[in-house]
Amino acid sequence: MNVEILSTGTELLRGKNVDTNAAWLSRQLARAGLEVLHHQTVDDHFGRLVDAFKLAASRSDLVLLTGGLGPTEDDYTRTAAEEAFHRPLEYRPELWKRIEERFRKSATRMAAINKRQAYVPKGATVLPNPNGTAPGFLLREGGVVFVAMPGPPNEMQPMFRDHVLPKIRATADFSVWDGFSYGLPEATVDEIVLGIVGTRASYGLTVRSGRVNISIRTEGARRKQVLDDLSRRVRAALGPCFMDGELNEVVARKLIETKTTVAVAESCTGGLISHRLTEVAGISEVLLEAVVTYSNASKAARLGIDPALIEEHGAVSEAVARAMALGVARTSGASIGVAVTGVAGPGGGSERKPVGLCYMAVGDRVESKVFSGDRSNIKERAAGYALNMLRLRLIGAEGYAGKTGQAAAGKAVGVRPRR
After folding, report:
1. Per CATH, is 174-243 categorized as 3.40.190.10?
2. 3-state SS assignment for residue 316
3. Where are the chain's structural domains?
4. Average pLDDT in the 125-151 region?
5. What is the mean pLDDT of residues 12-20?
6. For residues 378 and 376, what is the distance between their CA atoms, to the nearest angstrom?
7. Which residue from 132, 139, 49 is spatially nearest to 98, judged by alpha carbons?
8. pLDDT of residue 341
9. At what angle do helices 247-258 and 375-394 cross, to 10 degrees?
10. What digits encode the pLDDT tens for the residues 323-361?
11. From residue 329, how far is each of 32, 137, 336, 337, 363 by CA, in Å?
């Protein structure tokens, strides 16, 4: 199936907004075993949007469009679909009732132009939108399935998950498994997966901030049995490096499951670790405290670190990272303390302590890494590394975080070189 994503909005082309919808949809489709072959971004121009519809329909089997379903003059998705596919717009009274009811409940004044959102192309299936006033729609034109969804992510994502993805999966003749690896380079993970999958299935890897996403796809009558066998073997081969979800979710679930309390002290990451943990519902049961001790004075006053220790070793050091983790655990009463200190750049580095050098501590264990990239990337990698150290401690594999590369992988599984 050829899949295309069509994003609308002048603000996307001007760089005022980042098109997070396309990235999110691509990830969801990849997990469902579908590859996006084309991605168009079109401004709020009726003629160019009509042309984009026609081009997409000429080369793709499934077209997912986001944006342009609002009530204003420059929201052209409905009328462009009408023009491109010769589908007159039809008024749906039930949609208008829902829109009116939403405005009543929110005690918001409704403009007359909102009634435009009660029109959809003839023959289209309406996709409900409980989070906004713009319903989506799905229509079939020849062999092409065209799906229009609103632009705001909080409206688009539930619509896709609840109403679009189930329709895609219902017609699928394949099975897909997704897993995550953290702590091994992409090339190492590739050798492991290839050695197991061989020619029995297809697979793909993507990398982000030290995490490798693995997707295995099988086809045929025995696709589910084959996939179960391959996924089981990949999990076993990756050992402690395997995760069955996003890193912050895995860590939070394990903390809650084991009733392990945690406190976090951050310097260069500026609260990123605690932010990622608090993205997970229920974390309040175990996360006792999170502090950003950016200055040396704060490290001493808040965490009880001896200023002489900082003077001797420097704020970016193994000794201070360990003292931060132990200090935040002691002052908060948490079972485990997590800390990060480092040089996020772009300035502040030296030959002895270059930009990107970070010390991550979980309890009294400290590991150091020199991360590459800009300031944001260094912060992201350091926070992820610390969370992974915490994950490994929680599963009883403490110390595995630093064992990356061929040696670690070869010890876990008899890896053969890729030919």
Report:
1. no
2. coil
3. 3-170, 174-243, 247-402
4. 95
5. 95
6. 6
7. 132
8. 98
9. 30
10. 999 999 999 999 999 999 999 999 999 999 999 999 999
11. 42, 52, 6, 5, 8
**Domain spanning 247-402 has what CATH number?**
3.90.950.20
Residue from 241, 248, 300 nearest 272 by CA: 248
Between CA 59 and CA 63 the distance in angstroms is 10
Identify the burial level of 392 via C-beta atoms within 10 angstroms of its C-beta, where 0-12 means exposed, 13-18 middle and 19 or more buried. buried
pLDDT in the model for residue 412: 44
Asked if residues 388 and 183 have their Cβ atoms less than 8 Å apart, the reply is yes
Taking the C-alpha atoms of residue 255 and residue 248, their distance in angstroms, rounded to an integer, is 11
Q: Which of 260, 210, 180 lies closest to 383 in space, CA to CA?
A: 210
Tell me the pLDDT tens digit for each residue of 241-294: 999 999 999 999 999 999 999 999 999 999 999 999 999 999 999 999 999 999
Give me the residue label for tokens 């939070």: 252
Q: Per DSSP, what are the bridge partners of residue 211?
A: 182, 208
Q: What share of the chain is helix, strand, coil (3-state, %, to 5)?
A: 45, 25, 30
Mean pLDDT of 145-155: 97
Q: Following DSSP, what letter does each residue of 321-364 receive, concatenated?
A: HHHHHHHHHHHHT-SEEEEEEE--SSSS--SSS-TTEEEEEETT
For all residues of the chain together, what is the average pLDDT? Answer: 93
- pLDDT category, 142, cuts 50, 70, 90? confident
Cα 90 to Cα 151: distance, rounded to the nearest angstrom? 22
Q: How is residue 155 annotated by DSSP?
A: H
The rounded distance, in Å, linking the Cα atoms of 15 and 60 is: 27
Q: Do domains 3-170 and 247-402 have the same CATH topology?
A: no
* CATH class of the domain whose range is 3-170: alpha beta
Residues 304 and 337 sit within 8 Å (Cβ to Cβ):
no
